[in-house]
Amino acid sequence: MVVSETFFDVRYYETDLMGIVHHSNYVRYFELGRVQMLADMGLPIQEIEKAGIMLPVVSVECHYKLPTKMGERLKVVSRIEKIPMAKMEIKNEIYNQNGELACYGTVVLGFIHSDTRRPTRAPKSLIDKIIPYFDNL
Question: Taking the CA atoms of the chain, what radius of gyration do you get in angstroms?
């Protein structure tokens, strides 16, 4: 399993008049974690795109538990629990600065050729980077 942790501070523009993070930002936080996880694995999203593969979002599921606020330092934990084939499922958890679960959800990404926009399987470069994280193979 691939697991990555990313820390960031809530910015003013991400909040409403009460200083609470607007619900739409959690999907952006999931993306922040996902991009960092790929970079940590040695495969930044830019490299995947340079190889002619795009990763469109197929679905997003998000569950809110606790509000987060302006100025808090949050942690997003991103996890890939199975080797991708035609889609990549990333599970996410966002914790507040007290370590309490504030939000969790799943993002499913597809793989398409950037020139034709036709679906394809996960690129070998991605699979090669992910396989070492799965010790049962």
Answer: 16
Q: Is 135 assigned a catalytic role?
A: no
What CATH number corresponds to the domain at position 55? 3.10.129.10
Q: Do 80 and 34 touch, CB atoms closer than 8 A?
A: no
**Domain membership of residue 106 as a residue range:** 2-133
Beta carbons within 10 angstroms of residue 98's beta carbon: 8
On whether the pTM is more than 0.85, the answer is yes
Overall number of domains in the chain? 1
Tokens of 55: 């990763």
pLDDT tens for the chain, residues 1 to 137? 999 999 999 999 999 999 999 999 999 999 999 999 999 999 999 999 999 999 999 999 999 999 999 999 999 999 999 999 999 999 999 999 999 999 999 999 999 999 999 999 999 999 999 999 997 65
Catalytic residue among 9, 16, 115, 135: 16
